């Protein structure tokens, strides 16, 4: 049983670390985007919508994008909470496998490649697909 736990932990650890880093990147980009959208929305609220032709539909698109971003932020926050729960469990239980030292790493050890970080537009399109 212990060998199974160790194998499972060692198999999942790199994927969880990559996922965690990607989530941090998404949260950071969402915060920047949300700040920009709020700033733009405030500027649009100052101008009367009826004075500029076509602005009304762009304002509606901006509102829709803001709602999508809020949904994605909620999803990312849930994922962060789950990862934090996993981290807490691992901290309480202690490491199953000791971390390798520089001396114990061979030259043949290769770090797993991390998949590309999805863009915000990919996430928005993903939200439409679900």
TrEMBL record:
The keyword Aminoacyl-tRNA synthetase does not apply. It comes from the Eukaryota. GO terms for molecular function: SNARE binding. Keywords: Coiled coil. Residues 92-130 are annotated as: Disordered. InterPro entries: Snapin, Snapin/Pallidin/Snn1. This is Biogenesis of lysosome-related organelles complex 1 subunit 7. The keyword Coiled coil applies. Belongs to the SNAPIN family. GO terms for cellular component: BLOC-1 complex; BORC complex. One of its GO terms (biological process) is lysosome localization.
């Amino acid at each position: 049983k212990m060998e199974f736990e160790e194998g499972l932990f060692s198999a999942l650890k790199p994927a969880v670390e990559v996922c965690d880093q990607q989530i941090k990147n998404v949260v950071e980009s969402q915060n920047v985007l949300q700040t920009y959208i709020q700033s733009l929305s405030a500027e649009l609220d100052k101008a009367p919508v009826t004075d500029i032709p076509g602005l009304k539909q762009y304002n509606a698109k901006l509102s829709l994008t803001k709602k999508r971003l809020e949904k994605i932020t909620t999803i990312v926050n849930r994922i962060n909470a789950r990862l934090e729960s996993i981290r807490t469990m691992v901290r309480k239980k202690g490491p199953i496998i000791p971390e390798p030292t520089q001396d114990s790493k061979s030259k043949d050890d290769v770090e797993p490649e991390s998949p590309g970080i999805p863009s915000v537009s990919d996430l928005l399109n993903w939200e439409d697909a679900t």
